[in-house]
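Quick one: structure for this chain?
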Amino acid sequence: MNPQVSVVVPAYNRRRMLCDAIGSVLAQRGVALELIIVDDGSTDGTWEDLHHGQMAQNIAAGSCSDRGVLIERTPHRGPAGARNRGAALASGGYLAFLDSDDLWAAQKLERQLAYMRAHPEFPLSQTQEHWIRNGCRVNPGLRHKKRAGDIFEASLRTCLVSPSAVMMRTQLFHEMGGFDEAMAACEDYDLWLRISCRYRAGLLDEPLVTRRAGHPDQLSATVPALDRFRIRALLKLLAGAELSVRQRFAVAEILAEKCAIHANGLLRRGRQDEFDFYSSLGQRARIMLDTRADHDAGGWSAALEIQPMDIAEA
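Got it. Here's what it folds into:
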């Protein structure tokens, strides 16, 4: 079987929701796919259910000649490591991710693959979504509105790409180095920015993903102060050589904004040393914006005094 699309589903202690997610992948029609499930060191019986329980039965019933299933178990490393492991095993020309708490419409892969082939100018595309929170349908705010084309600057303040809605060329994923496993959260924000500063993104304007939120084990609910990971992603961009001058100013503006917000939160909690670090970083970014100096990548790093340790500490 030569899959057209490799689907990577990472899971950590999501036994109940994972069964539904897997079912929505196996319900896909009109495309040859391989399903790669990566159990990220779950302790709730996920691994056992994948082999001997209801999920194993569903997988056996949904498998056929044009869809293979690979189940991998790793030590707990977080979503970045789990997705990277799945992508390393992928053999399809296109790569799609599905979070274990989300669902796909049955025509998602077929429609999106056709879109990707019709629009070779886009190495990455996504679809629209339905949002479910605490079991109720909600409408995303305008700031979350997905768009096509150059989405880099629009994505700096609010991430506009959803992992479960993405399809990308597998080659692009490996070219970009995958997800940053040093980031405990916002690893998707980091990767989408690294991609969108170089490439335009496509949008299939159909809601083919159901995004389920509101459960207590969501990463956004368990990892505090997510802005510190976004700040790290922005620092990485400024320390690199890929950005245009305009993009650098846009990144510096959001960096100053996020540092100020995060620093104020640290000050309220009495964490003075961390407050000093983020406050200083934000002030340096603001000075760069006020002077409007034209720097190359090395100049920006020097002017902001960005050091590898700064990125690691952020």
